[in-house]
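Now for one specimen:
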Amino acid sequence: MAVRGLPGENIVRVGRGDTVFALSRRHGVPVDKIIRTNNLKPPYHLIVGQRVTLWRDGEHIVDEGETMESVARAYGVEESALASLNGLTAVDQPRPGQTLRIPKVSARPSLPSGPAAATPVVARAPVPPAKIPSPPAAKTPGFIWPVEGTIVSKFGRKTKGLHNDGINIEVPRGTPVVASQSGVVAYAGNELRGFGNMLLIKHAGGWVTAYAHNETLLVGRGDSVRKGQVIAKVGTSGSVTKPQLHFELRKGKKPMDPLGYLGKGTI
């Protein structure tokens, strides 16, 4: 991983009387960021002389095979924030050698004025999402088309160094979207900029399918779904202006061209 100004190089030593909150206030780093970065456990006491990593913004030079998702995960930032800072959408992918600016941590916590400012604050760790069950083994092999329509954007490199990690299929608004294979819903929401209402489904064997730009989501995180089950309705949410489904197929973290697998008898 090539970096310039690597976030995490700003390491401080804990002084007498230092707390997680005191470091947060002094350096403008959110409390939960300090806790996650340093893997602190309740009640989050610090020891004098302890080394604490405070992430700051920097730059990253993209290596071959890296994606927006992998870079965001490596730096502990939101993929949508990384894309937005670099003038990209959630469906864009960086090219090898490209320099990405890494988002700064959010603004420092606001503090009350007057005597109440001296009141100790107990840091609370963020509550991790419930673990989803393992996906079941496929009863029938292969992936099926999530919708039937016109492919308006194929998998692969696009102009201006962009890359489509899936395919976009144009269909009428409200068209039912079906699960391409049986699995478990790993994500259901609209937090990823550009994708709109999106579903991620985990399948046996390390496969993952993605369904974006939906008008309505009919399943939620942790739900088990059957191959061919209706899971959403097509819409124009996200960065598109015409009703369509953005569909991705991944093996582990690697995006695969769906056209090489849809309707095939293997998984």
Observations:
- The chain has a mean pLDDT of 79.
- The CA atoms of residues 33 and 219 lie 31 Å apart.
- Residues 20-27 form the longest helix (8 residues).
